[in-house]
């Protein structure tokens, strides 16, 4: 079957932002197959459209047949459309499929747990609460992503996927994150990982770190493992840009990989919290995570509490706080 890594994230573009450099490196340099998993159905959000610059020519536009749409100019050169859930979902899934095929030579697997809210056909925002109308795409008695980790069938489904694909390493969201859908995805994967292990699975699980810029205290902006993605930064940005209805101007992104690379001692890095590294299953990715984990543990104070690293973190938080 060959060696695989599994990336599980909540929304279309999360995988690219958090893990694309690691996936590109493993796929192109070491021949890993990529298992690209979306946990939500991506039915919620807004549709961004660039109207200036190079991206204006290729920017996706809401379909002409759409009768109800609300549009505002968010900034010069950027329109933001509010559209019904079925239009939003179709576009986001298309862009995920384009990214998965072009950059990772795979197809997305959609678990399709509904997001915690959506926009109905009248452009009204609906929260999934008691008595809320259920969109047509959601089966009865099907949990939302927020509660999927407490659902027996959902856990069984995720555990079976892990057993079927048998990835060397699983990457997903961190349990402390800025959105409940990320956090709930982390809970689902962690519980399923343990369930799969009890049935013989032997692999590793790491949590990809989102930039929180101190939102939960400075500790959660630190990590204990990393992957050197030097040389893959531009291609990662291209993969992110495939999600054009969410990222209209990828060239303007201030990705954190170079900052993190400075702290790790490499050109650019994607960083992780280790949940468990297998002691018996090795491969290029598992071995690199093991080495970097040992490095972080041995150099924790220097990496995160030296005057130099404190200044890097402070400068980056200041940059994140600036209006775009």
What does this structure look like?
The structure is a single chain. By secondary structure, this protein is an alpha/beta fold. The chain has a single domain, classed as Rossmann fold, CATH 3.40.50. It is built from ten helices and twelve strands. The chain has helices spanning 14-30, 55-58, 85-104, 152-165, 180-198, 233-241, 257-264, 284-298, 300-305, 307-321, and strands at 4-9, 33-40, 47-50, 70-75, 78-82, 109-113, 117-119, 125-127, 169-173, 204-208, 225-228, 269-276. The chain has a seven-stranded mixed sheet, with helices on both faces. A three-stranded antiparallel sheet has the order 3-5-4. Helix 1 links the parallel strand 1 (4-9) and strand 2. Helix 1 (14-30) crosses helix 6 and helix 4 (152-165) crosses helix 5. The longest helix is centred in the first third of the chain and has 20 residues, at 85-104. It is globular, with a radius of gyration of 20 Å.
């Amino acid at each position: 079957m060959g060696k695989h890594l599994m990336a599980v994230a909540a929304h279309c573009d999360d995988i690219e932002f958090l893990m694309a450099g690691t996936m590109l490196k493993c796929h192109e340099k070491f021949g890993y197959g990529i298992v690209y998993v979306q946990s939500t159905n991506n039915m919620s959000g807004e549709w961004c459209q660039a109207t200036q610059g190079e991206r204006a020519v290729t920017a996706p536009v809401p379909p002409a047949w759409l009768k109800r749409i609300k549009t505002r100019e968010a900034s010069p050169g950027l329109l933001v459309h509010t559209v019904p859930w079925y239009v939003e979902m179709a576009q986001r899934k298309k862009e995920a499929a384009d990214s998965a095929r072009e950059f990772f030579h795979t197809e997305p697997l959609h678990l399709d747990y509904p997001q915690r809210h959506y926009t109905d056909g009248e452009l009204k925002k609906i929260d999934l609460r008691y008595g809320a109308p259920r969109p047509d795409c959601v089966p009865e008695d099907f949990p939302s992503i927020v509660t999927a980790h407490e659902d027996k069938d959902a856990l069984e489904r995720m555990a079976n996927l892990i057993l079927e694909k048998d990835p060397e390493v699983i990457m997903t969201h961190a349990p402390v994150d800025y959105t409940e859908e990320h956090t709930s995805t982390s809970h689902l994967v962690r519980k399923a990982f343990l369930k799969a292990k009890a049935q013989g699975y032997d692999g590793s699980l790491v949590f990809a770190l989102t930039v929180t810029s101190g939102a939960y205290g400075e500790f959660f902006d630190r990590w204990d493992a990393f992957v050197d993605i030097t040389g893959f930064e531009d291609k990662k940005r291209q993969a992110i840009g495939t999600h054009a209805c969410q990222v209209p101007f990828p060239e303007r992104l201030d990705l954190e990989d170079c900052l993190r690379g400075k702290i790790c001692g490499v050109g650019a890095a994607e960083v992780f919290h280790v949940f468990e590294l297998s002691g018996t299953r090795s491969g290029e990715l598992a071995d690199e995570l093991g080495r970097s984990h040992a490095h972080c543990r041995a150099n924790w104070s220097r990496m995160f509490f030296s005057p130099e690293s404190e200044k890097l973190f402070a400068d980056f938080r200041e940059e994140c706080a600036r209006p775009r």
